[in-house]
Give the backbone structure.
Amino acid sequence: MNHFLLNLALAVVPVVLAITLHEAAHGYAALALGDTTARDAGRLSLNPLKHIDRVGTIILPGFLLISQLLFPPHKVFFMFGWAKPVPVGAWKFRNPRQGMAIVACAGPLMNFFLAWLAALVMPTADLLSPWQEIAQQFLIYFMLSNIVLGLFNLLPIPPLDGGRIAVGLLPLALARVWERMERAGIVVVLLVVFVLPRLIGFDPVGRALADILPWAFRTLFWLAGHGDGGTDGNFI
């Protein structure tokens, strides 16, 4: 039971922190550009409870977590979810499209920054104490959660951050067409991530992540001054 609870905490806490700080980054970026909507709504907070979405933060991640821990090999390999979006008043920006693109960039950038911080404090000695091993495992999960969340949100599909960045960069006529995808965007994302791979037997998002993640870990460890961090990415 203790081992199960430890694995549960190591899987859940990093994801919750990554999602919370991702959303907070959006709110603080908007505030820096003159929009107080998130602050006025009480959403400019580091309290995870403020950002919970019933389906995206509880039901779907909970199902993925429990199903992976209950069945062999009893490890968490994949998590997916979302938080309640921080409200942003785009009309308060001098240039609404560019302002929204900047606010959208803030979330993934926060995730990549947090992953780098985790690499910076990662215990990498040859011999680690039991507590250092737990800390290392937590930090690896934390890096993984932030890298995946940051990269996934850069997919150019509204309402993901990448979609909003695309709206800010595309010519106005095309941006308007792209923005109309937002209502159906999350359905498109779920189809691409969960349904399409089962139908065609090929998972483009999973394959891309599998190729990028080892490189991302090595790069972050290098930027943190650990060389390759003593790993070739096999722990992913």
Remarks:
- The radius of gyration is 19 Å.
- The chain has one domain: 2-223.
- Confidence is low (pLDDT under 50) at residues 230-236.
- Residues 2-32 form the longest helix (31 residues).
